[in-house]
């Protein structure tokens, strides 16, 4: 909505405690890579880095005196140089505590891309005291326009009142709420509240813990004493300023796409190698099969030649006839020493028997001799008769 530049410090509207609204406000400031998300469980571990926390609590007038007792025990950072070097601004504009709390986180973090408007504000307010920094915020039209563009529809301007001009009515006119921020600065945890004259120094955190662990202990203690009564009527809201999750998800998606492309290329190379190896194995298999066939044919030829040679040897052995010598009426088969594998003693033994073939041939010889002999005797007999 349009803002009267001459009434910048008197025209800020109330904002609702909503992380989505704060994220849109960041974008209107020109800040990049940052978002705001709500924290539902203080004891739950936080994922990823956190730039700072924004704490909303109910402001109760009749119990403010009890808060004063607590403030007396708080440790304020009163060193002028330290206070002026950090961005701590006193709230001088009504209903601006939400933007104050958000700027207290953004302008104290060096790793955030602030954008043109906030960078100019940070450079302009460098070295100023907290009050002047508050006036610098209230007199920046871009910040006022962004703030009022996200105001609640039912928000209405209030007349100045010394008691409630610097707090925000985030829920209704009967309930007043206030925003403060917690940020790590130079190794120490600070609470930045625009209603207080100085930052609250909560000290160092241990070497074996994160600054968020220190914050959990501080905020847990505060929740117990926020209304002066332990664990009764506690109404608060806690939000964290964190890196934009969309950037992390986009980066992760890009990495997954890159890895997918690498895997696909590797699979293609593997398929090529597999096909090449299959072709080579097929060729080698065919070559081996042809060689085996050749060797088999050669073995068959050798076997046939061996069988022919063996048969020839057997035929020669069978044709080697045992020679017989006939002396008188006794016929003794004479076997050459090479044809008889038995020892000389066995061959001369009376119990030794000739082979079947030799015996048959000897019998045939005896038969021939026996048959021929009578014919000669008959011839001689006939001769005598002729005489």
Short key terms for the protein model shown above:
387 residues, alpha+beta, Ubiquitin C-terminal Hydrolase UCH-l3, 49% helix, disordered C terminus
Kindly describe this structure.
The protein is α+β, with helices and mostly antiparallel strands and 387 residues long. Among the domains are: 19-156 and 175-243, Ubiquitin C-terminal Hydrolase UCH-l3 (3-Layer(aba) Sandwich), CATH 3.40.532; 245-276. Helix content is 49%, strand content 14%. The chain is built from eleven helices and nine strands. It has helices at 19-29, 64-72, 80-85, 97-106, 116-125, 130-138, 141-149, 211-225, 245-319, 344-348, 356-386; strands at residues 34-39, 52-59, 168-172, 175-185, 188-192, 200-204, 236-243, 324-327, 330-333. The strands form two sheets. Strands 1, 2, 3, 4, 5, 6 and 7 form a seven-stranded antiparallel sheet that branches. Strands 8-9 form a two-stranded antiparallel sheet. The longest helix has 75 residues, at 245-319. Mean pLDDT is 74; it is low at 159-166, 169-173, 321-332, 340-354 and 370-387.
Describe the structure concisely for a colleague.
The record marks 193 as: Important for enzyme activity. The protein is an alpha+beta fold and 387 residues long.
């Amino acid at each position: 909505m349009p803002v009267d530049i001459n009434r910048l410090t008197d025209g800020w509207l109330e904002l609702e405690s909503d992380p989505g609204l704060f994220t849109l406000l960041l974008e209107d400031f020109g800040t990049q890579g940052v978002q705001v998300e709500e924290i539902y469980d203080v004891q739950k571990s936080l994922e990823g880095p956190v730039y700072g926390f924004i704490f909303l609590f109910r402001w109760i007038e009749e119990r403010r005196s009890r808060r004063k007792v607590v403030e007396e025990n708080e440790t304020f950072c009163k060193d002028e140089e330290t206070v002026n070097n950090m961005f701590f601004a006193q709230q001088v504009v009504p209903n601006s505590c939400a933007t104050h709390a958000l700027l207290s986180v953004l302008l104290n973090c060096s790793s955030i891309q602030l954008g043109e408007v906030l960078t100019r504000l940070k450079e302009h307010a460098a070295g100023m005291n907290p009050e002047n920094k508050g006036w610098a915020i209230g007199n920046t039209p871009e910040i006022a326009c962004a703030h009022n563009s996200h105001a609640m529809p039912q928000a209405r301007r209030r007349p100045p009142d010394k008691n409630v001009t610097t707090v925000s009515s985030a829920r209704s006119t009967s309930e007043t709420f206030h925003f403060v921020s917690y940020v790590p600065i130079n190794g120490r945890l600070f609470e930045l509240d625009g209603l207080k004259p100085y930052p609250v120094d909560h000290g160092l955190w241990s070497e074996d813990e994160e600054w968020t662990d220190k914050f959990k202990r501080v905020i847990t203690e505060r929740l117990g004493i926020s209304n002066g009564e332990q664990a009764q009527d506690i109404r608060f809201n806690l939000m964290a300023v964190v890196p934009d999750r969309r950037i992390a998800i986009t980066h992760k998606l890009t990495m997954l796409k890159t890895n997918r492309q690498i895997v696909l290329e590797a699979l293609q190379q593997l398929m090529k190698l597999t096909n090449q190896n299959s072709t080579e194995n097929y060729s080698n298999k065919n070559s081996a099969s042809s060689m085996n066939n050749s060797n088999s044919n050669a073995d068959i030829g050798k076997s046939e030649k061996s069988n022919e040679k063996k048969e020839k040897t057997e035929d020669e052995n069978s044709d080697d006839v045992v020679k017989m010598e006939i002396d008188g009426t006794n016929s003794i088969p004479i076997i050459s020493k090479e044809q008889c594998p038995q020892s000389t003693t066995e061959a001369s033994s009376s119990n030794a028997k000739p082979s079947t073939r030799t015996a048959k041939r000897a019998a045939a010889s005896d038969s021939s001799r026996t048959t021929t002999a009578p014919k000669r005797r008959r011839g001689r007999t006939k001769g005598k008769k002729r005489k």
